[in-house]
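Hello Y.,

Per our agreement to keep a running log of every chain we model this quarter, I'm adding this entry. I've kept the format consistent with earlier entries: sequence first, then predicted structure.
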Amino acid sequence: MRKTFVLDTNVLLHNHQAIFSFKDNDVVIPLGVIEELDRFKGFNDERGREARSASRELDAIRKKGHLYEGVPLPNGGTVQVLIDHDMEIPYGFDKSKVDNRILACALHLKKQGRNVYLISKDMNARIKADALGIPTQDFETNKVHIDELYSGWRELVLPAREIETFLATKAMEAPAQAGLFLNEFVLLKAAENENKTALAKYCGTLKKLTPLYHINARPWGVEPLNLQQKFAIELLLCNEIQLVTLVGRAGTGKTLLALACGLQKTIDEHVYRKLLVSRPIMPLGKDIGYLPGSKDEKLSHWMQPIFDNLEFVMDRLYSNSDDVDKKIRFLIESQKVQIEAITYIRGRSIPKQFLIVDEAQNLTPHEVKTIISRAGDGTKVVLTGDPYQIDNPYLDSSSNGLNYVINKFKGKGLFGHIILHKSERSDLSALASELL
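Predicted structure for the entry above:
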């Protein structure tokens, strides 16, 4: 039976292409949604861009027919804009609210006998729709369930002689039944003795299991403290891998390892011209409003976590705090290390740089696509984040851009990923991550 999908505003703000995501069914957009798009279109952020893009899509469709009648789409469905001002809704619903006008539209179509579904990313809107007897769904395109997220490594149990051969020859064909992804790490364990182990990576170029080339690396004095950190350093120092994602809770060392390896590849090895670090401007809790000063002075507040990690790295190399401050200041002033807000990356071309995007879980799939597509020739992109700590009200642990990239890129030769589980910041930090 043909379905009718009534779209909430937040669906189009999440992805303006949502109009075309319902195959050969009918898409209905209440007039209240158009009014809200008009309000959001002036915003200078992702919501504003999506609102403008959605309006452009509808304007292009309008040229093919009358939207109030319904215009056929290439996928066999239709899209219709429905005036909702005069539609009835049960007592207790404030009709001055656009959300309730959208519900009134869905209820009106249901009374006409149509197979109606409300599509909304707003939990309260879905709850109210259910109270009215209207089937409802979240818009789950691009969702990756956090429990099913690719970990980047696994264990394999093999006969001890095969592990000995691997250690001697430095290469081994991957077991066909393992189904390894390119650049996936493997902890090899002997069947006869589980204490006999070896670390390997399914090499993206050789298509074989190979040893870790940077197993003894200590970038800028930072030593890996667990197995996953060893894997992360391998990915970060490998020139052939151009996109790396590091996922983990607070204190697992994501940003620290990325910075240390970035400094190693930029300052010591001169593989990249500069280390560019960026993060979304997304406050925890209530925003403190506009900040005075120049762009760099404004950014210093948002980028303080980056400076904290830089200080930690420098403290391991210099005992004098004045030397630490001077070294950090030199790196910033010489622009060997450049710190920038995500806002200023759009439209740029970034060649031969080590680009770290911290807190990437607060980015939408479209924003992450925009950032990665900025990478010019010879650039390495590192995305770090914790999908359990999301401050963007329009995203969750399943719909954020970081998870989306991991799911889309796994198995590609230029991509590597690892989930870091153990917090190494402090005993208190580890306990907080576990209990809270």
